[in-house]
Amino acid sequence: MIKTGLVSISFRKLEAFEIIDMTAKAGLDAIEWGGDIHVPHGDRKTAEYVHEKCMEKQILCPSYGSYYKVGEYITPVAEFMKALDCASILESKIIRVWAGVKGSAEADPEYRDIITEELGLLCDLAGKREIGIGLEYHAGTLTDDAGSAKTLIESAGRKNLSTYWQPPVGRSLVDNLYDIWLLGEYISNIHVFTWRGRERLELAAGIGDWIEYAGVLDGYKSRFMMLEFIKDDSIEGFYRDADTLREIPGKIKHKDERRING
Q1: What is the pLDDT of residues 94-147, one digit of tens each?
Q2: Are 223 and 192 in contact (CB under 8 A)?
Q3: Containing structural domain, residue 218
Q4: pTM for the whole structure
């Protein structure tokens, strides 16, 4: 099952209560809160306030976008516990982190081992609270492509470790579908947007591709597809994108339908 949502950092200049009201008005299910602005690491009071306001509007907080960068802290446990506390208060099931700060092509085996070991530690800490770790799928990290992301997850060997997915810049529909297939059940949540190169477009411009992606993703497990990178950071554009996003689950062709329809 696919549920819909918004990444809060899409509107960094807005207050949390404004984002909650917009999300509810748009008919979306959830918000992923950013740990760098709306619910800062360790700010338990803000986390409690945001969670309370979300519950009032029946908005879920399935994931916490922590911006924790694996391998970059002198005291990783102390730093991570700040994010973990906020995620617990929000009742988030996943904490999103960055898989280092080096791309897979420039990372040597020693660096990969450092990131892998720390990821295992984070997963064990989060697992004690029944929370998972989700890797940002992003350039400049060890999850800059599907093969590297899969290797990292399997090397860490933790059941509560997953990866997010979003379409990399310039990659084709066919290549993206292959990446989704390769990662399979390792994919947790998805950041949704339409770009042409580096130009932001409204989501509707790429709805055909997103229906294809969702058709493959929906075959594995329940996930959240969450809007990010709204064209011109427009609130009106957000509502149009939200309408488009809510259409996608109903347009998915499942395996049996694709076989019948050729």
Answers
A1: 999 999 999 999 999 999 999 999 999 999 999 999 999 999 999 999 999 999
A2: no
A3: 2-261
A4: 0.94
If we measure between CA atoms, which residue out of 214, 252, 219 comes closest to residue 261?
252
Q: What is the SS3 assignment for the chain?
A: CEEEEEEHHHHCCCCHHHHHHHHHHCCCCEEEEECCCCCCCCCHHHHHHHHHHHHHCCCECCEEEEEEECCCCCCHHHHHHHHHHHHHHHCCCEEEEECCCCCCCCCCHHHHHHHHHHHHHHHHHHHCCCCEEEECCCCCCCCCCHHHHHHHHHHHCCCCEEEEECCCCCCCHHHHHHHHHHHHHHEEEEEECEEECCEEECHHHHHHHHHHHHHHHCCCCCEEEEECCCHHHCHHHHHHHHHHHHHHHHHCCCHHHHHHHC
Q: Count the domains in the chain.
A: 1
Cβ atoms of 142 and 112 within 8 Å: the answer is yes
